[in-house]
Amino acid sequence: MKQILAGGILLLALSINIQAQWGRPELAADEVKKLNDRITLVTLEDEDSKILKMFANDPSKLNGYKNAIKWYNETIQEVIPKVWKFNPSYEFKSKAEVLELADSKEAKKYSVLFFITYQYKSNSREVSALAINLLENYNSKALYNSHLYWQDFPKPFPRKGDLYMGLQIMQAQLHGRLILSNKTTRSTLDELYHYARVLKTKTLLIDKDEIDKSLTADKIKKQYPYPVEIVDYSVIENAIIERSSKYCYVQIFPSNSIRNAHLVIDSEVGLCIGYSFNSEKMPTVVASDFKEYVQFVKQ
Length: 299
Hints:
By secondary structure, the chain is α/β, with parallel strands linked by helices. Helix content is about 35%, strand content about 25%. It contains ten helices and eleven strands. It has helices at about 1-15, 30-35, 50-55, 60-85, 95-100, 160-180, 190-195, 215-225, 235-240, 285-295; strands spanning about 15-20, 40-45, 90-95, 110-120, 125-135, 150, 205, 230, 245-255, 260-265, 270-280. The strands form two sheets. Strands 1, 2, 3, 4, 5 and 6 form a six-stranded mixed beta sheet that branches. A hairpin with a 6-residue loop joins strand 4 and strand 5 (about 125-135). Helix 1 packs across helix 4 and helix 2 packs across helix 6.
């Protein structure tokens, strides 16, 4: 509960970008090659003096804000060494240090990985994400689709498992672009046609707080013929962190409509192996989603 409160407060301090949509931009292999050859600067969040002043008379919000930034900076520094393998090396920098390097003659030695938030104009949904760009093009306040690549999180403020997941998906996408260099784009949905067959070899994990409570095992089995477990998010998070080969899991992402986008993600490699775009306003897995998850599996 404290992390959720802190996360909401942190959103006030970060740039909110308007007019965006869920997805990823076109990305050419030569652009990815530039990222691959550079040192990655991982940007740490700074306390905003305006927010500190705003919360000066509210100790609870002030502490929540400070704790949220502290948690993010500590956690991203814990996660990056365990997950980030795309570049030969990385360095953690404050925003001020990143901006200084961006304006220097050394800028083209670096790429930059950073936290962003934005808001859908159509429904005012707030979204958080990790973005990556060439340092000379860095602008943390720019629209999400001005960055070379971004990866949304399912929640307005990421959990540790979300940071692992986001980085795993981002690297899978970037590595995929290097491999499929004859194509101009590589989208998440492209992966389904190549990797959906893996779904039937995995146990699907569903967050117990994100499933229709009226669903029974029999109802699920009619729509989804493979193993399913309804679990606490901590089990999903552990599968992500441990890169378990046994599991895949559902993450529900906000979209720019009233619907939500469901991705079924392989916990071992961070590839999308199932998909649903349902009509539920709440982030909830319903019976029809299970049918959608298997639509790309070749029997």
